[in-house]
Amino acid sequence: MKINAVEIRPGNILEFEGGLWRAVKIQHTQPGKGGAYMQVELKNLIDGRKSNNRFRSAETVEKVRLDTKDFQYLFTDGDMLIFMDKENYEQISLPADMLGEAAAFLQDGMDVVLELYDEKPISVQLPDQVVALIVEADAVVKGQTASSSYKPAVLDNGVRVMVPPHIGAGTRIVVDVYAQEYVKRAD
Predict the structure, then answer these.
(1) pTM, entire model
(2) Quick check: 9 and 26 in contact, CB under 8 A?
(3) 60 and 79, same structural domain?
(4) Are 60 and 46 in contact (CB under 8 A)?
């Protein structure tokens, strides 16, 4: 499906220069002299390369629609992640580096969404937020300001996040998977 360059949004999948690319960041610019353009940061879905491209507003690009399918994470086998199709119970193995840093947040039995292009998986979407347990938190330094000062903490999956001073070890918190940031205390 062809779309104008000004219609590109973050998260769109584009077919560009013979590959599949995800729009990561966009910036619409209207210089005082010359035509408007879109500055788009693209990430290749196959090999992970990044590219910055400038599209004139009159240009068209090919937007790709991916098929999505619900899977459940089962376990890790070496550097491969094993998922199960929730419809027919078939298992599929994918390399852990396909998920990048988000792989640390996988939990047994977690529901994920695989994006497929020509029946081939090209990306795995985890839930945006997960509940994690803090196993280690630095002590609060007396005399710090009452404003939003954060301290480092380590989660049960080994990821370091910044948390408010009142959060201690043993507390369950909600974490944003992709930004790797504290969201709130879990109920």
Answers:
(1) 0.68
(2) yes
(3) no
(4) no
